[in-house]
Specification:
By secondary structure, this protein is an alpha/beta fold. The chain is about 50% helix and about 10% strand. The protein is globular, with a radius of gyration of 19 Å.
């Protein structure tokens, strides 16, 4: 009962903020940083650490903001099918007035926080890089990659505990795979959430790599989950350098005291042939990530 009340109150607050920002804030957001990566790859850990920086306003999966401007961005809610939600969005999907509104919503968060830099984390944005660039031409992107087997195991555990895909999201991922040459048959191999996680991991990484050529070298950085866990201070220094910031004592201290691996690492050696069939050659490439 309490969770229902909290969610209702949160929804009302979100709607109020969206209306307020849309009416009274008319500002552009410059040089935001978007954290990319398949879900369960360390995106939340990275975003949480960056949120400790005194200049950064961190938005953790602000789905309501995207949906308020682009209903077709919704792949999660019980209204997603009616909204015709889609996995991938492109530059052709940008609408001028909705783009201005999105900038207003992001700018309002900066104004409230009195911070100068906006960092956003939403894993599905890995499939929407051209869409993001069209909105924010000066954006920066950091892509965090984790071993695909570990990601798929984590997705399966989360799915068993609280759900992960839902019927609609998996339908969309399946349609996305079928639209890519040579990948359609893989959908029929995915009978468990572990196997679905392997395919989602592959599709997410391939989507980022396909769009990386659209970005200038100084606008994109790829880091590994293993490095974030094993050398957090150095990894965060690289990420902050991407947006022209130096690491703060808060960020480094939080990383050194709290960042840790929360699940067992994938076993050494080579991935299984079954895993490779679904996840593809990228699984071997990032086996130590």
């Amino acid at each position: 009962m309490h969770s229902i009340v909290r969610n209702t109150l949160r929804g009302c607050a979100n709607r109020f903020e969206i209306e307020l920002a849309s009416r009274f804030v008319h500002r552009q957001v410059n040089r935001p940083l978007f954290i990319l990566g398949c879900g369960r790859s360390g995106t939340t850990a990275l975003g949480g650490l960056l949120s400790k920086h005194p200049h950064i306003k961190y938005l953790n999966e602000p789905r309501h903001m995207w949906i308020a401007c682009y209903p077709e961005a919704d792949i999660w809610s019980n209204k997603a099918r009616a909204r015709k939600g889609r996995i991938a969005l492109s530059a052709q999907d940008v609408r001028h007035l909705d783009s201005r509104r999105l900038h207003s919503l992001f700018a309002f968060q900066l104004m409230k926080s009195r911070k100068s830099l906006l960092v956003e984390k939403l894993p599905i944005n890995s499939f929407r890089i051209p869409f993001l660039i069209a909105h924010f031409p000066d954006a920066r992107f950091v892509h965090i990659v984790r071993n695909g087997v570990e990601v798929a195991r984590s997705i399966a555990r989360r799915s068993a505990a609280a759900g992960w895909y839902g019927k609609y999201k998996w339908e969309l991922l399946g349609d996305y795979a079928r639209a890519r040459a040579g990948l359609g048959g893989l959908v029929n191999l995915c009978h468990t959430d572990y196997e679905r996680g392997l395919l989602e991991w592959r599709l997410s990484l391939e989507a980022v790599h396909d769009s990386a050529d659209l970005l200038e070298p100084d606008a994109f950085l790829e880091v590994s989950y293993a490095d974030l866990i094993g050398a957090p201070a150095e990894t965060l220094t690289r990420v902050l350098s991407l947006i022209g910031e130096s690491p703060s004592a808060n960020v480094v201290d939080c990383a050194l005291r709290h960042i840790e691996r929360r699940s067992v690492a994938a076993a050494g050696g080579a991935p299984s042939s079954g895993d490779l069939q679904i996840a593809g050659p990228l699984l071997e490439r990032y086996w130590r990530s």
